[in-house]
Amino acid sequence: MRTQVGIVGAGPGGLLLAHLLQREGIESIVLETASRAAVEGRVRASVLEYGTARLLVQAGVGARMEREALVQHGIVLRFGGVPHRINFAELVDGRGVVVWGQHEVVKDLIAARLDAGGDIRFDVSDVALADIESKRPSIRFRHGGENHVVECDVIAGCDGFHGISRGAIPGGALQVFERLYPFAWLGIMADAPPPADELVYAHHPSGFALASMRSQRISRLYIQVSPGEDLAYWSDARIWDELDQRLVGPDGGFTLAEGPVLQRGITLLRSFVVEPMRYGRLFLVGDSAHVVPPTGAKGMNLAIADAAVLARGLVALFKTGDTALVDHYSEVCLRRVWAAEHFSWWMTRLLHRGPFDTPFDQRRQLAELDRLVSSPAAAAALAEAYVGRPLEHA
Ligand code: FAD
Ligand code: DHB
């Protein structure tokens, strides 16, 4: 088997890369260990930056999102029991974010690829990369009970944090930057209307809480818990009670409608970056190269931005032989990645309660939150980072 770009992983990064390349007549094969149903059913991120949403529309995979997704022109910061709105429309030229589940993005990308006759192999196993330093790198894998090898010009490692691509690079060639946080998020999806029209990020003495949504009828709600927490100890009643305390409190402001819990899970918080994001003919895309804690809602946006930068570089490489863009791939992506790493770390530190935090730390957080809602300059900096910087290629 032979292709121009071998793509490992069918998350948003890998699928968008395949789609953008296909539109330019560049061949690729996408290899994915999970089943199509598992990939399309994974509950993960939901906030699309302004530039991400525009890119999906420009790439012809945004029609359903434009029809069905919720556009948001602000967020609510809740602290000291009181909600405060950050108005993006005023602060960042009317730009907003789009709330649209990652699995919906993935569904549309898979449909677009299959409609165009593109190759995605789900349910593969034993994926291994070879000769990534050479001009003929290859990917070995098992599919349908048989061993296969696909020879490529270039490999894109889009296989997430736990994938194999990053590990194919000799250890000494990568610099690793990492921070683990002493807390986790317990998230639920509930068949209940969201408590507010906009996302609510709450600072509370018991810990952070977030009210998000998937539609006007489905809520996505999170509470900060300790990293070793066992879901078995969290009954629905206990989760709703904790959400109510942190998001509503005694003086209300809005009500939290309860409903059947459709899905629940615990996510650990981590910051992680490897540099560079390229080794020989292997390019790392998205979570395989960097992870952010979810507080800033940046993970999927970064994967999509990496894919867009790489697609542009590969189009130049295959069409004209020009290597300038691929040679700068890592440098261009890392600038955006580190901005998002900083923002996500900052939002996390602003809103969570650390196990060793003192009353001083709580007052410091409240002072910073107060500054954000009383200084237009501080609010604008938050809004600008949340809505996201323009994509490099746009
Ligand atoms: P992924 O979406 O991880 O896709 C990688 C794909 O590669 C997967 O389909 C995987 O099955 C496949 N794969 C793995 N190994 C192999 C292999 N060896 N061979 C072939 N395929 C392989 N971000 C937010 O902003 N907000 C959130 O609330 C949020 N929640 C999250 C919850 C969880 C549990 C996780 C893990 C992440 C969450 N994120 C969140 C982050 C966001 O979802 C990711 O940043 C985004 O999915 C990155 O996209 P990607 O394409 O790089 O990787
Ligand atoms: C969601 C997740 C986030 O991490 C975030 O910051 C905002 C929204 C969500 O799942 O809806």
UniProtKB/TrEMBL annotation:
Residue ranges occupied by any FAD-binding domain in the UniProt entry: 2-344
Domain of life: Bacteria
SUPFAM superfamilies: FAD-linked reductases, C-terminal domain (SSF54373), FAD/NAD(P)-binding domain (SSF51905)
Matching Pfam families: FAD_binding_3
InterPro entries, per database record: FAD-bd (IPR002938), FAD/NAD-bd_sf (IPR036188), PheA/TfdB_FAD_monoxygenase (IPR050631)
Keyword Transferase recorded: no
Gene3D superfamilies: D-Amino Acid Oxidase, subunit A, domain 2, FAD/NAD(P)-binding domain
Keywords noted in UniProt: Monooxygenase, NAD, Oxidoreductase
GO molecular function: FAD binding; monooxygenase activity
Protein name in UniProt: 4-hydroxybenzoate 3-monooxygenase
Gene name linked to the record: pobA
